Amino acid sequence: MAEDDALVVIAPAGDLILDVRQAEGATRFSYRVHSKVIRDSSRYFENLLSDRFSEGEQLSAALEALKLAGHSDLADAPVDALPRIAIVDVGRTSASSIRNLVADFLRAIHGQDLSVAIPPVPNLANIAVVADRFDATDTLSRYVRRKKYGSLLDAKSAKGKISTGMTEERVRQKLLVGLLFDHAPWVTRYSKHLILRDSSQWQPGVEENHTRPLWWDLPNGVEDELIQRREYILEAINSLQSHFLKLYTSGERQCKLGYDTSIQCDSFQLGEMVRFFIRLGTLRLQGTIYDNTEPTYHTGDVERLLESLRQCSSYQVDRNHAHCGLRTRLLPLVDLIQNQLCLDTTSLDVGLCLECWNNHRDTYAWSAAKRPVLWAQPRSLTGSRMLQGHQRTPSSCLHRHVVVRDLFMATERDWTARDAY
Prior knowledge:
The chain is built from 17 helices and 6 strands. The chain is mostly helical. It is elongated.
């Protein structure tokens, strides 16, 4: 075992030494702290140092012994005489050494400045992990808001915009900080980024690894919620393709011009439509006599997928059918979906709304909602009729989230009202 490290003094008049290790047998780091401060700031320490546990009884007995020995001012008490409490495991962090990480966590709890004026995102994310481990996120959340770390870090990165070079790990670190330290803009922005861009964690064949830092397995059901939202969004986009294929194979005349060539127009459009979707990689022809294939999912960027659908050409069987075909009918529906995804990243719609997630989760979460049987009348998405059923929801923004959620979660979607051919 490596030699134990020197004492880190957080509180010069502290009445307790914390001996902290990341694992049994790992290097021990010791910190002098105020027991009352850590009890007031952390439910973990409040319980551990109460008279219900031996650690709390030992602390009370040791402090009483110090008073009897004449050390009424603990600042003058010998360090060796102070009570010591052993702590093992500070959470799933990425820190190579926990010495400075735990010191910064304890400094924040004591209301002191951290080791650096504006901690980098990885440092802040690691502190969030430790705060979560010791049930001190409320205290750290107030500290981070008071220090305005979120705003200061955004100011250093083009007003918070997500750069094209930002790694998924950095996105996840910011999302975890937002979730645990109650910084709503980061929760919305970076949850939406993962939903629309996909995650390396969600790829087929990737197994869960609970030894990786906590941001790779977002807590409190968030990871599963993001996966669920992405799958429903992809299902909704796929239903556009299914809608038009069903129309053109139904036998009902789609070309309304009344020409002798209208039947040929429909056949031509169906053929071009199939070719277009196969070329995009969004459709495959598969026999139903025997099919041993596994379900597959789009693993790319949702925004790029929508842009690919926009590349549909204006196919026409001859010059008399200039306005027939897929493009004039598909693009308004792509616009509708894109508007509801709100790709400007300032909306609270498909990204997590922290207020609704924390306060109205049972009503708000996609993973907890019952799927609507049918979604229709898209022209009313922003109108009063679509909102009437949700006017009594307890949040000023919850009704809007629920309306958009219904579009993506519906078991069936009737696109006909918007398919204004």
